Amino acid sequence: MRFLKSLWQASASQIKFFFVVLLGYLVQVCVMPYFAIGDVTPSMLFALIAIITIGYGKLRALWVGCIYGILMETMCPTIRMLNLLLYPLSAGFLSMFFADKTEKRLEYERSIGKAGRNVNSYLRTMGCAAANTLIYEIVNILYMYLGGSSLSAAIIGRGLLNVLWTTVLTTLIMIPVRRFLGFKKLKREPHSRSQHFQPKRI
Q1: What is the DSSP letter of 114?
Q2: What is the predicted pLDDT for the residue at 108?
Q3: Is the CB of residue 162 less than 8 Å from the CB of residue 40?
Q4: Which of 125, 130, 179, 199 is nearest to 159 (CA)?
Q5: How many Å apart are CA 197 and CA 8, to the nearest integer?
Q6: Domain 11-101+118-181, what fold?
Q7: Residue 147: DSSP 8-state
Q8: How many CB atoms lie within 10 A of CB 58?
Q9: DSSP H helical ranges for 99-152
Q10: Would you say residue 197 has pLDDT above 60?
């Protein structure tokens, strides 16, 4: 019974994860266009990639970036190959800066006199979403410029608005999504002076 219970808990966790990934894509293509602000639609995909990057780490962030890149390239193509390449590359690259540091890295930082801790998970989630969206908008604008389109303040302004609205969206959904996926509230562990705030899985 204990084995079956453990197996069910592990399966339930994976089911929740893939449900969130799939639901995020459906919400992006079916719902988010109705919530455009200033003719700019926030990116639910980058919001979820940020949440998964901080919650699960680099590998799953890359997987989800690949899944979203394939889906967006197939179902909602814009500039050829942009989505297919940019979603996984951006997610994988930024996960190196925003995902939790390894224990080895933390110990090394402490050994050289640094704080040796991860920055607050919620702040990193918002920063990761903003950075992913910013990279996407910069590459998109460069594609347009190299394709012969003239850049204007309106185009640049739309890109910056997308970064802002996506960050706001991430702020609104990150706590309920983290709770659904099984991450507890951040708290301080009292047994160690060097311990830091970390999200804990149920």
Answers
A1: S
A2: 74
A3: yes
A4: 130
A5: 29
A6: Arp2/3 complex 21 kDa subunit ARPC3 (1.10.1760)
A7: T
A8: 17
A9: 103-111, 121-146
A10: no
Is residue 141 within 8 Å of residue 159, measured between CB atoms?
yes
For residue 198, the SS3 value is strand
φ/ψ of 116, rounded to 5, equals 65, 55
In this prediction the pTM is 0.84
CA 66, CA 17: separation in Å to the nearest integer?
15
Q: Any idea how long the chain is?
A: 202
**Exposed / middle / buried, residue 139 (Cβ in 10 Å: 0-12, 13-18, 19+):** middle
Structural tokens at position 192: 């160690």
* Of 116 and 171, more confident: 171
Spatial CA neighbour of 136 closest among 64, 69, 74, 70: 69
Give the pLDDT band (50/70/90) at residue 194: very low
195 pLDDT above the threshold of 50: no
| Greatest mean pLDDT among 4-13, 51-60, 102-111, 148-157 | 51-60
